[in-house]
């Protein structure tokens, strides 16, 4: 399972990379706009934090294949490192994916709401496909079921593209997606923190420390005692 952070907030990225086993960062135009500063600086700052090898997914905003390809080439040159260009699964996007595949530029197909969109994107050359789980749930669909179908289709058709499930409102959705066999999830910083939260974990850790300190002294750790 690859854990990816869905944010452009530098503090949140630093925190998650410090604590958790992160494999990358995803952004989209909405996420970028929330930072309300120079687009290129945001991306360069993220690259500095995560390093060259970590995945960074950046979305093109053109609505024509020609524009998307130009943006993809520009971003590849300017940002560099392990970069994936997010392309929405509109017809011009599929056309752009075919072109970008030939150019060796890595693609994340995004704004996916159906398994057939994911399948066509993968056939067109996408490396990752990003179904929007919570947005599907919010239109009375079943986001987890769509992810299951994508996983199943990729197995049936021997497709190498990976699933990057996105748009989560809670930890349970992430858990259910993990059970489908999807290779990766992108979650916002709040959900990333919540993945580990459990009152009994905190209670147990407190109890261990209390019992230890009763015998070995306050603030002592294993290497302080005989
Ligand atoms: O990466 C796509 C994701 O950002 C969409 O999430 O929470 O806006 O539905 P959300």
TrEMBL record:
Primary subcellular site in the record, as a coarse category: cytoplasm
Subcellular location field: Cytoplasm
CDD domains reported for this sequence: Transaldolase_FSA
Entry keyword annotation includes Signal: no
Coiled-coil positions: none
Keyword vocabulary terms for this entry: Cytoplasm, Schiff base
InterPro entries according to UniProt: Aldolase_TIM, TAL/FSA, Transaldolase_3B/F6P_aldolase, Transaldolase_AS, TSA/FSA_arc/bac
Entry protein name: Fructose-6-phosphate aldolase
Species annotation: Clostridium ganghwense
Gene that this sequence comes from: fsa
